[in-house]
Amino acid sequence: MNKYHSVKTKTADGITHDSRKEANRWCELLLLQRCGAISDLQRQVKFVLIPAQTETFPRYGKRGNRLADGERIVEKECAYVADFVYTENGKKIVEDTKSDATKTKEYRIKRKLMLWVHGIRIREV
Q1: Is residue 72 exposed (0-12), middle (13-18) or buried (19+ Cβ within 10 Å)?
Q2: Given the DSSP bridges, would you call strands 122-124 and 91-96 parallel, antiparallel or unpaired?
Q3: Residue 9's beta-bridge partner residues?
Q4: 92 Cβ contact partners less than 8 Å away, ≥ 6 residues apart
Q5: Where is 75: in which H helix or E strand?
Q6: How many CB atoms lie within 10 A of CB 43?
Q7: I need a labelling partner for 22 at 20 to 30 A (CA). Which of 13, 48, 86, 99 fits?
Q8: How far from 6 is each of 1, 59, 107, CA to CA, in Å?
Q9: Which of 104, 103, 124, 101 shows the shortest CA–CA distance to 5?
């Protein structure tokens, strides 16, 4: 159990989900895909919202000779991982199973960035 009191749950196909709600939604989406209402069902799809920020720095060998510049990460990337992504009526749908407790400030910012950067509105279930 985590801080939101969700319990990791396995579905009949052996996939472990972060909550019972997510596991139940996965089963519903599988049924919708089997009957042809949706297609291309995927889970845990990563969308980069802000790429990693890097800087280059000079490198020198043991004898003081100049080597190729190095590169180091200054800021890690900011990414959103969607619970489910699928196609419905020819449109890409990004879906997240949410409760009121998991609608954190961080999630709300990432939701806004998804719309700004990728033009995708997250469907909350």
Answers
A1: exposed
A2: parallel
A3: 17
A4: 85, 86, 120
A5: strand 66-75
A6: 17
A7: 48
A8: 6, 48, 17
A9: 101
Residue 115 phi/psi, 5-degree rounding, is -70, -40
Q: In the numeric block, which tokens belong to residue 62?
A: 């043991």
Q: What is the pLDDT of residues 67-120, one digit of tens each?
A: 999 999 999 999 999 999 999 999 999 999 988 878 899 999 999 999 999 999
Task: Count how many residues are written for the chain.
Answer: 125
Distance CA 89, CA 38 (A): 7
Say which residue the tokens 């009949």 belong to. Answer: 12
Token representation of residue 86: 């699928």
Q: Among 73, 90, 82, which residue's Cα sits nearest to residue 121?
A: 82
Q: Determine if the pTM surpasses 0.90.
A: no
Tokens of 50: 């802000």
Q: What is the pLDDT of residues 23-42, one digit of tens each?
A: 999 999 999 999 999 999 99
